[in-house]
Structures are given as C-alpha cells and as structure tokens.
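Record 1 of the preview.
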Amino acid sequence: MTSSPSSSPRRIPLLLKFRRNTSVRRFGKSIERGGKYILRHLLRICLRTPPVDPHQLRDIHRILLVRPNFRIGSLLISSALLPALHERFPDAQVDYLGADTTASLLKNYPVVRTFLMSRFFLLRPWAFIGTFRRLRKMKYDLAIDPSFGSFSAVLYMWLSGARYRMGGGRWAAGLCNIAVDKKKGGHAYDGVVFLARALDVPVRDHPYYPVTPAESRKAIASLGGLNLADKRGSFPFIALFVGGHQDKRWPNESWIDLAGRLHEAGARVLILLGPEEIHFGPKIRQLLAGAIPVLDPLPLPDFAAVLQQARLVATPDSGPMHLAVALDVPTVAILQQESSRKFAPRGPQDVVLIHPTVSEVFEDIRKHPTWSAQASAS
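->
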C-alpha cells in the first residue's frame, strides 16, 4: 500500500546541479579555506579577547546558542546542550540563532526566542543587519558556539555583542573569552560534552529531540493508513530512509533490494523518501508493486514523529540519521565514506557499516536485537 498517488518526476534546475557538482564544491571549499585562514589571523590581531574562567560566570540571565548551519544534523548535534544550560543557569533565558531550514524543529526545544539566518540574506543584506541589531538589543550575557570550528558562528557571537563568548576549535582561540579544547579527531557529538564539562554540568552524549503527544498521535494515525498501526499504537516496523547528501547516498537499487529481502523475511518495512529522492517515488512504488508503503517527504516535525515509531532505522549519513539517534531509535548507519565515522551513531544498539553490500546490511538487521519483534509481529 502506498502513501499517496505517484508524483511526477521533478526537474532539478541547472544552477542547482552546478552548485551540487563535486568538482565545483571542492574548488569552492579550497578558496574558502584559504580566505578563512587569512581572515582568522587578522581577526585574532584586531579582536583579541581576554580569557575568562567558566567557573566564575555570574549573573547570567540571557544566553544565545549559536549554530547558524542549514543542515538538520548541525541543529540536532547542538541540542543536547539545551537541557544542560537550563540546569547550569536555571534562571536564564536561552535563545537560539539557527537557520531557516531547521526552524520547524526548533519549535519543540526549550528556547524562548529563535533568530534565523537565511541564504537569501545575500540578496537582502539589510535583513542580515536587522537580525544583529535585534540580537544586540537583547544584551546577551553569554553566547555559545557548539560547532568547534565554525567561522560564521564565532563571527556571529561577536556581532551579537554578548558579554562572554564560549566555543572551541581554531576560531575560538583568541576570539572567545572561554576557549574549550576537544580531542582532535574525536566524534562530532563530543563537542557538546566538552562544553558542558567546562561548565561543570552533566549532559547526554548524543542529540535529543522531543516529539509532542499531538505529533505522536498524528504519526500513528498516518501509519494506520499504511497498515502499520491501529488504535492501540504502531506495529513493529523497520524504517528505511532513502536519501542523503550527494556521495553519502546508498544506491537506490540497493534500497529496493534490501526492502524486498526484509519484506520476504517477514518484517514490516516503511520507506521514507528524502526531498531529492521524490522523483524516485514512482519507480520504487512500481518495482515494489505496492507491497511496501512509501512515504514522500514530510514536514520535519511530522517526519520525526513517524521515525520515532520505528523499532529500527536504516539510513545513510544524513540529517535523519542524527534524528533517529536523537529519538533514541536503534540505527543502522550505512556509510559511504570513512570521514562519516565521526558522525556515526554510537549507542549500544546502533550498527555502523562502511561500504556494505545489501547482503551485509540485511544480515546485520536480522542479527539485531529488535528483529524478533519485527518478524513475530508480521
């Protein structure tokens, strides 16, 4: 059974294809790195900031968490710091400077105000200036960059006018009052842990995302239409996220093969398409002959609520991979690059595979502790 009528293939604009070209991106990155190297040293000379002992922070009433990255994963990786900040500074107001692409996810987090950066600011510089005027009026006591390496985050902290600035990585040294060290080559989730440790506050070592009861009820109702739930709740099923960014994707044919094998082995399966895979929907529905439900891209909060109902998620290195981790759903990460290891899930029931075959993924899923629930409930 499918989720909706097949969508017609979507044509990708020429400019977007050019921007996604691997060679173009590598060339742009090399120019960016060179420019940032020069700029970093100039800023250290002009904006050198005296250090402050984080244990001596007092009278912190307004905090700004700064993560203006457009990817879902960047927001989620920073999320674990929010409860820690509320514990360390219980009377403080915590705001978030993020990106417009993740605004819908921010609504469920314990932040009072959100300020959003947009790619359209390049065409509307007055909007960019207006955002920082509003930030400066807030008179923040503390701004924190959880990225450990983002030039824009450190720059935006400085532009916000915050009394204290806290961060890590190359840009933080000399530009932040509180520069936190992190072990080189460590996991992406470790940055938040080191920041919390500097503040003497406990923190979970992976992202979190709170789904509201209303969102859960809506997800179960949607799954009911796919024969994956009834009025008592959702049935055990495996979610396969077919998506990802450029060379991090697993081939679509491999997903079809894996879905078919899991279905034949007795598991309930749900295929979730990413925004760039929506054109693949008609083909996958045709090849699977309606035996496995397929969901087109959903609004991020709805997507998260559906993902939370899964007993197991298989996904490439992607935003949904971090979302599954944030929802504490056991995750099978199908990675195409060694560099993705630093972003891979690391929970006790998570599985990480590098360049796996379909057979290897299938066997690892069958060996997973959740498999007995999948097969017996079918």
